[in-house]
Design a protein that fits this description.
Layout: H1 8-14, H2 41-49, H3 63-76, E1 80-84, H4 87-98, E2 104-108, H5 113-122, E3 129-133, H6 138-144, E4 149-155, H7 167-176, E5 182-186, E6 204-207, E7 222-226, H8 228-239, H9 248-258, H10 261-280, E8 285-289, H11 299-305, E9 312-317, H12 320-330, E10 335-336, E11 346-348, H13 350-353, H14 360-365, E12 372-376, H15 382-394
Parallel strand pairs: 2-3, 2-4, 4-5, 5-6, 10-11
Antiparallel strand pairs: 1-7, 6-7, 8-9, 9-12, 11-12
Helix pairs in contact: 3-9, 4-8, 12-15
Length: about 400
């Protein structure tokens, strides 16, 4: 019996404690090596064919990286996990492995910028057809499916609008249509301790482990988990040959982060709810987007598929662009940064910080208004963070 046969809480707390058979260290070593020595040619041949036979070259396989893949797979209830250099590298490996010219992709229209670029700009150059639409338009999703649809992809909750998509309903639509499309969900915002997409019928789950899995803002990575047959195919093509391998040092940091993931998520979700409730009654706030509020259009969906409501929210400051910029310039404790999932509470103003280059009409159509702020709860005192937002809003002219 290994740690992976226990409950998720125990798995998270004990990841990386059963790997080092030589020195019996309690924590997994960082295997900072690019190469491995074999006892014979047969061993070397096997190691180049599948990671289950051992390691031969760190671009292909590495003990520290392998342990991270096993840990995330166990938390998600998957057969196999595969770490990458970033979430974008993981998605690139998946699509370049599984799609070919003439294939069709159906994707939610609110997705990470690098994902959008790969689908809408790069893959179409090679003959892959892509349809993007709002996945809360469930009838529209059904109509978008074609005989050549090979991938159905979406995030939930979505970045940065906090849209929540009904996973089970999307799965039902695709399965009832007779489509054999692969169902893939980016569950970065939820983490395995909030949503279990595989239990709802999803085939493959993607995480930007840079965020909550790492939890400390000091490493970049991505992980894919799913059936062994699919993940091994992605290993063969998308990792072994395309080369977006994870750094063993970063994987070590991700494994460290997993140990406190459940506890961090519980506290950050508590903070996010308290902040959302505070902002919803503030006179300078137009609206708050948080799945834990009854005012969220998909609150009932979130209650059904999420154990908790997440550590992120967005809110719109009255006064548009000028008000959004003013809030950013007024906060003292909240940090202005574009990532999330860290010990520090992070805030950003998409219209002026991350999406300034997007045409105004396009940006607004996707729900990113001039006064929209994204808030990523950290681990500070909830009262201190609310006080900081309150004083910052006091200096905003609406």
């Amino acid at each position: 019996m290994t740690i992976y046969d226990y409950s998720p809480s125990t798995i998270a707390a004990r990841v990386g404690t059963e790997v080092d058979g030589t020195y019996h260290s309690l924590g997994i070593p960082i295997y900072m090596t690019n190469n491995y020595v074999f006892d014979n040619a047969e061993e070397a041949k096997n190691a180049t064919q599948s990671p289950e036979f051992g390691d031969c070259y760190t671009r292909i396989s590495n003990p520290t990286n392998n342990e991270l893949g096993k840990a995330v797979a166990a938390l998600e209830g998957a057969e196999m996990g595969l770490p990458f250099a970033s979430g974008a590298a993981a998605f690139s490996a998946l699509t370049l492995t599984l799609l070919k010219a003439g294939d069709h992709v159906v994707c939610d229209d609110t997705c990470y910028a690098a994902t959008n670029y790969l689908l809408s700009t790069l893959l179409v150059k090679f003959g892959v057809e892509v349809t993007m639409l709002d996945f809360t338009n469930y009838e529209g999703v059904q109509k978008a499916l074609r005989p050549n649809t090979k991938l159905v992809y979406f995030e939930t909750p979505c970045n940065p609008t906090m849209k929540v998509i009904d996973i089970a309903r999307i799965v039902q639509i695709v399965k009832n249509s007779g489509s054999e499309a692969l169902l893939v969900t980016d569950s970065t915002f939820a983490t395995p301790f909030i949503t279990k997409p595989l239990e709802l019928g999803i085939d493959v789950v993607l995480h930007s482990s840079t965020k909550f899995i790492c939890g400390h803002g000091d490493a970049v990575g991505g992980v894919l988990v799913g059936p062994q047959s699919i993940i091994e195919e992605i290993w063969t093509v998308g990792l072994k040959n395309l080369g977006g391998c994870a750094s063993p040092f970063n994987s070590f940091l991700m494994l460290r982060g997993i140990k406190t993931l459940e506890l961090r998520m519980e506290y950050s979700c508590k903070m996010a709810l308290a902040v959302a409730q505070f902002l919803e009654t503030h006179p300078k706030i137009e609206r708050v987007n948080y799945p834990g509020l009854p005012s969220h259009p998909a609150h009932e969906v979130a209650k059904k598929q999420m154990k908790n409501f997440g550590a992120l929210l967005t809110f719109e400051v009255k006064g548009g662009m000028e008000a959004g910029v003013a809030l950013m310039n007024n906060v003292k404790l909240c940090a202005l940064a574009v990532s999330l999932g860290e010990a520090n509470t992070l805030v950003q103003h998409p219209a002026s910080m991350t999406h300034w280059y997007v045409a105004e009409e396009t940006r607004r159509a996707s729900g990113i208004t001039d006064g929209l702020i994204r808030f990523a709860a950290g681990l500070e005192s909830i009262n201190d963070i609310i006080a900081d937002l309150d004083q910052a809003l006091g200096g905003v002219k609406s």
